[in-house]
Amino acid sequence: MGKLRRRYNIKGRQQAAPGPSKGPPEPPPVRLELEDKGTLKGVDASNALVLPGKKKKKTKAPPLSKKEKKPLTKKERKMLQRILDQKEKKRQRAEMLQKLSEVRVSEAEMRLFYTTSRLGTGGRMYRAKEKPDDVAAQGLEKISSLSGAHRKRHYQEAEEEESESSAESGPEEAPADEPAEAGAGSAPAHLPPAPPGARGQSPVPSGLAETPAPPSAPPAAASALARPPAKPAVFIPVNRSPEMQKERLKLPILSEEQVIMEAVAEHPVVIVCGETGSGKTTQVPQFLYEAGYSSDNSIIGVTEPRRVAAVAMSQRVAKEMNLSPRVVSYQIRYEGNVTEETRIKFMTDGVLLKEIQKDFLLPKYKVVIIDEAHERSVYTDILVGLLSRIACLRAKRHLPLKLLIMSATLRVEDFTQNQRLFAQPPPVIKVESRQFPVTVHFNKRTPLEDYSGECFRKVCKIHRMLPAGGILVFLTGQAEVHALCRRLRRAFPVARHRPPEKDDQKDSVEETRRFKKSQARARKAKATTLPQISLDNYSVLPAGEGDEDREAEMDEEDEEALGSDLDLDLGDDGPDGGEQPDASLPLHVLPLYSLLAPEKQAQVFQPPPEGTRLCVVATNVAETSLTIPGIKYVVDCGKVKTRHYDRVTGVSSFRVTWVSQASADQRAGRAGRTEPGHCYRLYSSAVFGDFEKFPPPEITRRPVEDLTLQMKALNIEKVINFPFPTPPSVEALIAAEELLIALGALQAPPKTERVKQLQRSRWSCPITELGRTMATFPVAPRYAKMLALSRQHGCLPYAITIVAAMTVRELFEELDRWGPGAGHSGAACPRLSDAVCGQGNSLSGVCVRRPAASDEELARLKGRRARVAQMKRIWAGQGASLKLGDLMVLLGAVGACEYAGCSPQFCEANGLRYRAMMEIRRLRGQLTAAGRQGVKCELSRQHGPPPARELGFCPKDEADVGVGGHPRWTGAEMRRSLRPELRAERLNAMCPEAGLFVDPKMQPPSESQVTYLRQIVTAGLGDHLARRAQSEDLLDDKWKNAYKTPLLDDPVFIHPSSVLFRELPEFVVYQEIVETTKMYMKGVSTVEVQWIPVLLPSYCQFDKPLEDPPPAYCPEKGRMLCHRASVFCESGLRAPLVGEEGTGGGGWRGPPSWPLLTGLRAPGRVGWPLPAVQVDFPEGLDCYKHFARVLLEGQVFHKLASYKGCLLSSPSTMLKTWARLQPRTENLLRALVAEKADCRDALLAAWRKNPKYLLAEYCEWFPQAVHANVEKAWPPTPDR
């Protein structure tokens, strides 16, 4: 049989058809129910509704014969199994999606992700993270937690087609699949049904939200508007050598070049944190140069905290880029090679701060890099705050300035979380560290005093035991560096004329075995002889209980680990174990510190001699500023010497303290540049855990008056509101402003306003003209005041020399002081007295002599000390020159050195530091150039010291002669006398107005000039005044030969190196106080007692004017003078509280209720009575009365003297108590007070406004007949 044809609706057709009809149907019987429950049967023809009588009969069709179901074939079974598997997968997928929706991240976090599908396809490798608020404000679409929604839609449509095709084979399983499909792909119940026309659209996933596109612009246009404007790419080719390029590619920062440059292009401020050795200092300027940031004659500026780093980095970058020093230059305080071709400029932070003062917006710079920001120096913090504001101002002018802050271990929170500094947190880019690891080893015991000796022993063990590699040792000061260098050179001498042999480099195991045998023989030899014990080599404090047993146990452990690199204990713990010379292991030892000569500093970068190992003994200057090649081992003593300042007293002291953890990590980072390194820390891990994480910023540890003055000169009045990364303390800012007000650099706040206004004005004191003049000099405010006051009587060249010598520290070599542990073990190290030591180098303050190799060296050092002492006495002179004290010694030393040509031989013979003398020479030239602008400012009369002739120290007919009383040289004579290099540098620094130039043949000052210089020094160092202890204080022995200062309770002494040590004058001013076991004054000069009220009125409290002698008129000043007694007291050194008024005399004063009589003391530590001197008459009504009297007498204007005989009453009537009874006295006094005319200058200013001023009041004192003559001659000015 053939295949049956499939018919349409075959099942319906198989039903039986109804039977044939046999006539019309019978009407159905009707039965009605009546109200009385009766029934009525029959047919009612009148009823329209005829109901059927019985149910219609239907005939059933015969049942069809059931066909037997065929068994499923193998193909059909596989198809059904595939359908079941797909349904099971849908169910599992629905469960998985439900679980994922429970743990799905929030939409705000999803907006912060960036797809990785665009990496390497031209997209950005670096994308700045946006805030969730910024993303929400942009109205972006919500991102689904799962990607590939379009793939899901296509897959669902394919499944629907398969289900339709297989509906025949399995229709009974379709209802079971509906819940799974609804959970997996159907629309949620809360969504409205789709419109009829959207039947073919895919359902919207639950994680997506429909956001209508803006109708204004199509998607392509919207994306084009969101992109920044395209800029042409700039690339500056650099021709590097293949060797340099190969070494450069090894640095980790090269892999971050694109990330850094994209961040710089998109943000005004970027922070780059890279470990030591990552190459950020040398490579980031090259990145910027190649990117074209210096193509339009702009400069890439790089600031370094130290001069050594600025010079070294400029040379290194120029060598890597194969460019000349004219393109990659440096500029430090005294020198530089910057030209018009300079494109990369390395400089110290102070140099950039001076450039900001000249031009605030820095238009020459396009990028400024602040390097080594983790050191947090004062100028670094100031620069970061200023540049953060400069970048905003430049951005508004469409001249963007990029700021990069680079550091190794930076406290990033001080910058990123400081809203006052950066409104938008800058991005932080972290660069990977060096390629080779550094193993850090801690000591089991922590030496407290003899850490220098521990460093020596550790270096000896490293040199004898470990493989080749340079050694870097960190110590605290210059003295310790030289002491350790001497010991190492003695222990491992280098044969200078012996040719290197290859046999000298033997196996380390054989050397160790030979060394052990020699040590064993040495111990046996020592056992037969009694040791010589010196008590000076032992500590005074007794050893703790159980220390001997503990040390014995540690020694046993060290012997067990004899060959380990961790401890390196070879049994040479004896006092002389490491001092025996061993010429078979030569060691090339070099010192390194900031005061070392540049040519000697450069030796550490050169390879050591063949057959030797390099060992550099350095201070913390090698911590971050320099990278010494070839260093594999680092020995860290864990200590650092810092200068501490007392904000209240100004006393400075050097203290050796523990370093911070960040500094310790920096020191460890010096190792492992070329191979795995080791760092040996001479302290335990427990001690390291107690270190501070970061060192405190320098701005919190030093006075800030110089910074306050510089910021005031930049028109930053409220310094307290400046965005410091770490603000200084309020006490330091208050002390700085008080000092500047006392120096006359700032205007004193008013005293008659409301309390709130007084509080505001106290923090916004404007700068004065004197302050702007002081700000032009690159020295401290006290020294700048001295320079600003020295333009009289030819004193400016001498003042410049003195200030330059006071600014440069350590002018003389320290021939009788050495560091702790400098003497080798077993050598006699006698103590020096505290007077000779000066500054202690150790924690305990013990200072020892320089260890001499022989008696000849001791004799030579003794002869040099005697020579220096003799030269100091010669330079100080006698008489008036000796009263200038130590400053005269500085002046004589500089003058003699310049006269001799400033040769190294002269400096060596007279105990002078050659580098310090060269710095003084450069600073003299710099101050001379600044003096051309500074001396042009006319100083206010209240700030400048009066001429010496007014105080009775100088004859009135003295002529204004040249330097030292000699006629001033001409330009030709000066050129012939100058050396060629000095002539080329400083001939342009001449000041034609003042006749100022750097004179290498400067003559000594005359006696009158010495007096002027003493007054100038007193005016600048007024807050550093000290008085010798009086007889009532000598009852206590501690006050013998001591002095008292206003802010210290303890006695202070003149330093023994001072030429005034044996003179003991009554009043002195000092440069600084240094604290060791005692407090010593350095830079001492004598002061006459009668100068104090005249030169330092702001530090004195004055009594009422004396009647005898009576007040007098000064024709030169044009004002009234009087004699007043005064008291120099502590209160004058502090600003009064808000609303506090003084007692007259100008400047800060104390409360008026204090007793001011000569014999009484004001409350405080000191109250020194001063003799009555002639000073300006204090402001008040009495001043107007006295000025009216001398005006009537004709002393003010000589034209009025002819009318003195015609007066109706005596001019002294103005001073009588009954003067108010006469109208003429009252009218004249009222007119003078109205115009504040209490001096000649004020009266002349009033006449310039109104020529008829005071005419009527003056005529009341004369008869009517004289009025016509007075009116003709009025006003009686000298020019009429």
From TrEMBL:
One matching Pfam family: Helicase_C
Name the residue ranges with Pro residues bias. 21-30
Which residues are in the Helicase C-terminal domain? 458-715
Q: Which GO terms describe its biological process?
A: maturation of SSU-rRNA from tricistronic rRNA transcript (SSU-rRNA, 5.8S rRNA, LSU-rRNA)
Its keywords, alphabetically, are:
ATP-binding, Helicase, Hydrolase, Nucleotide-binding
Ranges of compositional bias, category Basic residues: 1-10, 514-526
Extract the InterPro entries matched here: DEAD-box_helicase_OB_fold, DEAD/DEAH_box_helicase_dom, DHX37-like_C, HA2_WH, Helicase-assoc_dom, Helicase_ATP-bd, Helicase_C-like, P-loop_NTPase
Source taxon at top rank: Eukaryota
PROSITE patterns the record matches: HELICASE_ATP_BIND_1, HELICASE_CTER
Question: Residue ranges under compositional bias (Acidic residues)?
Answer: 158-180, 545-576
Q: Which organism is it from?
A: Eschrichtius robustus
PANTHER family, A to Z:
ATP-DEPENDENT RNA HELICASE, ATP-DEPENDENT RNA HELICASE DHX37-RELATED
Under what name is this protein listed? Answer: ATP-dependent RNA helicase DHX37
Q: Name the segments for region: Disordered.
A: 1-76, 116-226, 496-583
Q: Gene3D superfamilies, from UniProt?
A: 1.20.120.1080, P-loop containing nucleotide triphosphate hydrolases (3.40.50.300)
* Residues covered by the Helicase ATP-binding domain: 261-428
Q: Which GO terms describe its molecular function?
A: ATP binding; helicase activity; hydrolase activity; RNA binding
Bias (Basic and acidic residues) ranges: 498-513
Give a GO cellular-component term: nucleolus
Keyword match Hydrolase: yes
